[in-house]
Model the fold of this input.
Amino acid sequence: MNDTICALITAPGTASISVIRVSGPATFPVVASFFDRPDKLHNASSHSLVFGTFLDAEKRPVDEVLLSIFRTPKSYTGEDIIEISCHGNPLIADRILSTLLTRTRLANPGEFTLRAFLNNKMDLSRAEAVNDLIVANSSKASEAALMQVKGYLSRHLQELLDEISDARLRCELAIDFSDQDLPQIDLDDLAARIRNIRDKASALHEEGSHARKLREGVRICLAGAPNSGKSSLFNAFLKQNRAIVTPHPGTTRDYLEESFSLSGYPIVLVDTAGLRESKDSIEQEGISRSYELMKTSDFILFLYETEAPELPFGIQQFEQKIIYVASKADLFPARKLPARHVPCSTVTPDGLEQLSGVILEGLKMPSQILERPLVTNARHLAALSRCLEALGMAENAIKADAGFEFVASDLISAASALEDILGVVPTDALLGRIFDNFCIGK
Done:
């Protein structure tokens, strides 16, 4: 990390401004060599702005720029940083970047955040949340990611890690001084401590299973007979004509998938082929895919326009996640619906209001979920599961009177799982997998 890197950190294309970030030990001499006021730049204090003209390698003016100064260690990466704000003409940004690259190199994907992690500006869970915040596709998802960037989850995990370390230390003291005439460790107290840790970790995992939907989206599959209104409902939720709607059955032969936000929650909506008996091989394949999509969905909206739904063979296996939707409610105002069946209309102003309410209620998100530490990352949830398993083994070791060595070993495994989330001892392969998914400017 001794080299100096640079990259465009705003979206490419024409805009009001573009921003190029430079980070590393040679940041100030490099930028000063292409700046018409080098002395003012060198003398500028951290977190200040310097106005001047950026020059190319031939000392020709490129643009009037504003330099944002961040001196080590009080910067995003922990290194010297200068962010160059220029006019948002892609040609200007490209000339500035090309000039800087004569004395620096282009940053790799996520390298600025990787350097922040390596320089102890943030732990690994917070670093991963930076990318989640960038790609969040709903307000709830961005709020959850911001909480992680702020360190809510990190602090909670560190507290659990400290409690595990304290319990492990008690076991190791009992092992080291077992041959001396000292009071024995209170096994009931140790078991209670481990049980308390496991309860906290279990609650974190349980809420994380819900909260993960904030990050990845709640998958909702539209199912039903042909012409039951699936494509119309799909378009209505998206507020655009994404799916073809015709009076001819079998129009949708493959599935369509789009994302939208429902009251701030990210929804992945899937429109599937109509369920019916068909001799058409292409339509049969579409119907087969419909059943596969229903298996992986969180909810199934089963649409029907008759007095009662005619359920196709095999749909009963998904009963727990089906919401029955009586579509085209505007055409059947006198229709009497069974309990747990929801009317909807895609042509009336409030036709989706009741259905939207039922979906939101079905999410079962705790009302204060965004005020608590959240585990939304699949890698983090897997590590938390390993932690819970190890804590359970430690409790069983105490019950079986297996010895403090076994309890301590299980507690080491539990702590290691949490350390994986925080990146206490990360591997190069793990860092590569995480930061390769970032954009270059982050």
Residues 35 and 54 are 5 Å apart (CA to CA). Residues 187-216 form the longest helix (30 residues). The radius of gyration is 29 Å. Residues 5-122 form a domain with the Gyrase A; domain 2 fold (CATH 3.30.1360.120).
